[in-house]
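Suppose you are handed only these lines of text.
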Amino acid sequence: MKRPHYLFSSGRLRRQHNTLCLERTTGERLPDDAPDDEGLPSAEADGARSPFPVEAVDSLYLFGEIDINSKLVTFLGQQGIPTFFYDYYGNYTATLFPREGQLSGRLRVDQARHYLSGKRRLVLARAFVEAALFNIERVIKYYQPRLVGEEQAAVQATLVELKKDREALPLTVDIHTLMAVEGRIRDRYYRLWPHFLGPEVAARFPFNKRERRPPSNELNALISFGNSLCYSTVLRQIYRTALDPTIAYLHEPGDRRFSLALDLAEVFKPLLVDRMIFRLLKTGELNPKHFEKYLGGCYLTEAGRKIVVSHWDERLSQTVQHRTMNKKVSYERLMRHECYKLVRHLCDPVGDLYQGFHMWW
Amino acid sequence: MTILNPRIGGMLVGYYRLCPRKAWLSMRGLWMEQESDAVALGRLLDDHSYDRDEKHLTIDAEAPDGTELVGKVDRTNLKNGVLHETKKGRACEDSHRWQVRFYLWLLYLNGVTRSNGHPFTGQLDYPLLRRTEPVTLDAEHITELATTVSAIRAIADQETPPPRLGKRSFCTKCAFEELCYG
Ligand code: SF4
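From them, the structure of the protein bound to iron/sulfur cluster can be written out as follows.
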């Protein structure tokens, strides 16, 4: 079965007949803002080669410093393998996206039509926020029974506020006000995180507010990294459908090049990213030594990233019993289904209204 | 939004006979086939099973209602006057038959016969099962095909897809299942 491949080492990735091969190099990767660079190969090869069959590769994640050439780009394109690049700090920086495989001009026209009509756009944008809210409430209710006293009261109060936010959703008249409600929801939710983490972990990883550029502390670093994994996973699913990833509804097409992935990732983040973070911190798999400070920001170390990535990858292949299809599907496959639901909505917004994925367990 | 002058092919006719929704979705370019192992195997069979024979005859025609028709025949044995269509298994047998009848109809519409004046015949090949099945075209089929093509043309103009078939036992075997129910 095809799986994503994550490369942490540095070196040269090349095509070798019909396989891919990483030729490792010696030397550390330098920060991407370090002065360099003459465009020369990054370092001497150390002789270690790891070939891997292209048939097994669904997508590539390059966390090390990797040299590539145009032959490889062509090959990855032919094989339909999207490739995600990360910088020295673990920030997602770019995607090499194969020329479209699945194409439907008509669907793209429908997608654009739903973007251009304020009303239609709002219907979809609201559905994303609504589902994200539902899943956030689900996470909160999962942790609620374990809390006592003041913490329990805080969670109760937040749930009441979230209920008001939910009631505000249908009243939003444009994307701007919808975004404001969305921001409010996230703020309330993040304020509960120290309670979910418990006093011990919360003391080691203080968290007061979400700060992205750069992430100001460990939790922000984790959220940023986790969200970028979620984004790229959704993106590689979109890529397998005829949807155009550049046309989005909640986010503006300019927010990122593939903003549809941002829209859909909203729905999955609480379940997949946030719960992963709680888990990794509470079990102590991640601890303060997995983080480093650079230039006023906080980032995961390479060892930390490896832990997160392997946990993420494992989580994606976990399965749940699907309610209408009557079979088990993986979390990753649920993301694909989300794309199909969107396709159905775009074809028939009345008969097949999109409802974002709701955690049903 | 309508699809002007859709060109209707044999596979689409087969799809329509199974499920109009499937035909509509595939006319929109919403293909599901790409990843399905079954389809990949089908393609492989088509490419490699009968290497020495003649292959891939393309036939154009116009239906009585003016619809443009196009047929891409797997393999044609001109000497014996037989059109062959290769399939993996007999799961959608009836739709396979209609696909071959459609090709025979295209020849009929073009007035093409064998040198002795007899019409071509068809044959379904199931190399994995080591079986073949003859297919012929009679007057009733011709009427039915004309009706089917008009019906496909009508759904091509439809803004929204035809409803799901709702026969779960059938849909679970369909490559479009996740697009319909996922
Ligand atoms: S899954 Fe069922 S409804 Fe959907 S296209 Fe296939 S046969 Fe038709």
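What can we learn from it? The longest helix of chain B spans residues 139-156. The longest strand of chain B covers residues 57-62.
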